[in-house]
């Protein structure tokens, strides 16, 4: 039974980074009020189960690898393995042991009220908040409701898989024990990053079951090839074209996140059994929209469950410009930094409409989440990219040329003795501007922002010639790329 009704100017369902940013930007510098409705932890998937813990698990192995590649340091670290308990303690410190009080304090400090419970739409400008221990609470929004519920791990419909209680990414990032034998279903970002930290933490046998014929299939081919080679050299088995037919587990048991969920698991792959101690599903994600009450507000989700929006992040097909969707829930660019970008645009749009201002100027339109998206895959080697790949550009009908060179410059040779990598630019011949760039190599994550600026700013290639990289840095690869194009 509904017993209370409260009004706010802005109500956000979902307290992850996208939801936090949307609420903060919508009320910044004003007397408007905002509430965030969150049924788990404020800070969302990224803070506790995805970006932050995964990078905390990956970084120690990266540091150890760098030390072993440096004469004068190599002898100090020897051939020992990582101190797994210490790595996990640091991971837990990074996630604040799943205590979101700091995030709640931040929200309150900027004027956002945090409301605990599961939020759903109850009609126009109406949000219902339910909790198992209390009555339903009704909230009404004077200006806007923002959907920012993110996504959840997808589970392929393989016979026996669900009953086997496999690990998802949440278990893998919050592991409490390291299984000896692991199978990972998938070949994308989560699968490859997970494979890296599992091997570093001491998994004895690791098998990647990839349905397609490449890792990181949406990236430039050379990137996936480098990651595949590295994983195999580290001891992983990477099986392409794998057909998973069934899964069966002895004595499955919900032992808690990050603990082995029962006895050995037998996977039948291409007619042959594969026995492991734990199976990790990293086969994509689905938008968390099933319990949002979309029909109550007249929202028609896409076939995949996403909520379509216009370039102001307003939900399509809803009169009155009161409903918005940001982050994974709209399917435009399912990355934390792009969700935050959308949220900033959305918040500015909500504020402008609340104040009766025109939506003139680029700050009120989201476009970078189409063909200007940067991404880093924190594998060994790292893969950093922005914009279109060559294949995607040609499929889009662009007349492109490409430049591809090894990352072999003075800066890289000084960084570590075993530095490896490759870089590629995709250039639109018509405009003579960069539309895509990919860097795959040792610690190349920081290279991608320069490329992002060039893509978003449509900087002419002749102008880039005058952007001189500092010597000796890995960024010198920009000069090598431009020289290769010049011929």
Automatic annotation (TrEMBL):
<dbReference type="InterPro" id="IPR050151">
    <property type="entry name" value="Class-I_Pyr_Nuc-Dis_Oxidored"/>
</dbReference>
<keyword id="KW-0560">Oxidoreductase</keyword>
<dbReference type="Pfam" id="PF02852">
    <property type="entry name" value="Pyr_redox_dim"/>
</dbReference>
<dbReference type="InterPro" id="IPR016156">
    <property type="entry name" value="FAD/NAD-linked_Rdtase_dimer_sf"/>
</dbReference>
<keyword id="KW-0285">Flavoprotein</keyword>
<dbReference type="InterPro" id="IPR001100">
    <property type="entry name" value="Pyr_nuc-diS_OxRdtase"/>
</dbReference>
<protein>
    <submittedName>
        <fullName>Dihydrolipoyl dehydrogenase family protein</fullName>
        <ecNumber>1.-.-.-</ecNumber>
    </submittedName>
</protein>
<dbReference type="Pfam" id="PF07992">
    <property type="entry name" value="Pyr_redox_2"/>
</dbReference>
<feature type="domain" description="FAD/NAD(P)-binding">
    <location>
        <begin position="8"/>
        <end position="341"/>
    </location>
</feature>
<dbReference type="InterPro" id="IPR036188">
    <property type="entry name" value="FAD/NAD-bd_sf"/>
</dbReference>
<feature type="domain" description="Pyridine nucleotide-disulphide oxidoreductase dimerisation">
    <location>
        <begin position="373"/>
        <end position="478"/>
    </location>
</feature>
<dbReference type="GO" id="GO:0016491">
    <property type="term" value="F:oxidoreductase activity"/>
</dbReference>
<dbReference type="InterPro" id="IPR004099">
    <property type="entry name" value="Pyr_nucl-diS_OxRdtase_dimer"/>
</dbReference>
<keyword id="KW-0274">FAD</keyword>
<comment type="similarity">
    <text>Belongs to the class-I pyridine nucleotide-disulfide oxidoreductase family.</text>
</comment>
<dbReference type="InterPro" id="IPR023753">
    <property type="entry name" value="FAD/NAD-binding_dom"/>
</dbReference>
<keyword id="KW-0520">NAD</keyword>
């Amino acid at each position: 039974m509904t017993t209370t009704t409260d009004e706010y100017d802005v109500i956000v369902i979902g307290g992850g980074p996208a939801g936090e940013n949307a609420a903060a930007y919508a009320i910044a510098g004003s007397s408007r009020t905002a509430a965030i409705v969150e049924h788990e932890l404020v800070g969302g998937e990224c803070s506790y189960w995805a970006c932050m813990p995964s990078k905390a698990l990956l970084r120690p192995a990266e540091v150890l690898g760098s030390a072993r590649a440096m004469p004068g340091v190599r002898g100090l670290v020897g051939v020992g393995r990582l101190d797994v308990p210490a790595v996990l303690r640091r991971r837990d410190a990074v996630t604040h042991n799943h205590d979101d009080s700091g995030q709640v304090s931040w929200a309150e400090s900027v004027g956002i009220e945090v409301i605990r419970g599961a939020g759903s739409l109850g009609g126009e400008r109406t949000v219902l908040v339910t909790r198992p221990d209390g009555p339903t609470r009704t909230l009404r929004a004077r200006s806007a409701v923002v959907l920012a519920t993110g996504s959840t791990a997808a589970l392929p419909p393989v016979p026996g898989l669900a009953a086997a209680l496999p690990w998802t990414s949440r278990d893998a990032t919050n592991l409490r024990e390291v299984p000896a034998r692991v199978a990972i279903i998938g070949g994308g970002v989560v699968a490859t990053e997970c494979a890296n930290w599992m091997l570093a933490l001491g998994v004895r046998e690791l098998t990647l079951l990839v349905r397609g014929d490449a890792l990181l299939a949406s990236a430039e081919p050379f990137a996936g090839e480098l990651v595949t080679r590295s994983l195999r050299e580290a001891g992983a088995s990477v099986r392409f074209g794998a057909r998973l037919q069934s899964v069966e587990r002895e004595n499955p048991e919900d032992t808690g996140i990050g603990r082995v969920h029962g006895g050995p698991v037998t996977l039948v792959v291409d007619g042959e059994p594969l026995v492991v101690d734990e199976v990790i599903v990293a086969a994509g994600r689905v938008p968390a929209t099933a319990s949002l009450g979309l029909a109550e507000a007249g929202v028609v989700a896409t076939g995949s469950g996403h909520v379509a929006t216009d370039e102001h992040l307003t939900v399509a097909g809803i009169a009155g410009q009161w409903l918005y969707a940001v982050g994974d829930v709209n399917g435009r660019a399912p990355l934390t930094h792009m969700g935050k970008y959308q949220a900033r645009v959305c918040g500015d749009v909500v504020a402008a409409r609340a104040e009766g201002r025109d939506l003139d100027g680029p700050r009120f339109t989201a476009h970078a989440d189409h063909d200007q998206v940067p991404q880093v895959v924190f594998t060994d080697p790292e893969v950093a990219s922005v914009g279109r790949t060559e294949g995607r550009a040609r499929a889009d009908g662009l007349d492109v040329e490409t430049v591809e060179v090894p990352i072999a410059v003075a800066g890289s040779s000084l960084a570590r003795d075993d530095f490896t990598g490759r870089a590629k630019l995709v250039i639109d011949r018509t405009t003579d501007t960069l539309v895509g760039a990919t860097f795959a190599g040792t610690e190349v994550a920081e290279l991608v922002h320069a490329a992002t600026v060039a893509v978003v700013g449509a900087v002419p290639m002749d102008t880039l010639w005058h952007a001189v990289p500092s010597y000796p840095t890995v960024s010198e690869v920009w000069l090598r790329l431009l020289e290769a194009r010049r011929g």
